[in-house]
# Entry
Amino acid sequence: MKSINDVSLKDIYTIGYSCFKIDQFIKVLKKYRITSLIDVRSNPNSKFYEDYNQINLEKILRSHGIIYRNYKEEFGARQEDKKYYKKGYLDFGEYTKSKQFLDGVRKVEAGIALNYVFAFMCAEKDPSTCHRNIMVARKFHQLGYNIKNILADGAIELQESVEQRLVEHYFPNRKQLSIFSDNLSWKEMVNKSYEYRNSEIGYKIYEDVKVNIS
# Structure
């Protein structure tokens, strides 16, 4: 099991802004020496958190020497191509195979090669309920990156812990043997858990008629 204190050039952070005032947010980014923030919101504006509107956030980050980038085209939860909505919601597994998403991966990898330290940002407080983790960070985790999710108290939760929480949620009785179903391996339960969470949080096409309240 990885330690939170493991240091690696392949570390990537995630963070949700809704639990931080902007000064606290900046303090946390500096604590972890994050040099580039990647905004993965499809709509990079917030009605209730004006400091996190793209134009304001980019200016604030620049004043602290942190680069802002919006990757809504590459990593956003709302994609226009309907072929990724065959299940009625954005299929994270399918979308992360797309050229568009993989172009984003290559850009991040190029930045890491130049020693930038990245954080993926969205609104949600809990990484396990946000596509920044369930879609974006998961893919980087599969590629061998060490994912460090910044929580509301500024502490770090590793991706392995997020996966543990997901499995505990979707397979609470996994330790009880059943004669009525096949026993799944840990990896299979993890993959199924990601799929179940995707079905719950994946953007649904009909939602484009709703008012954004993020």
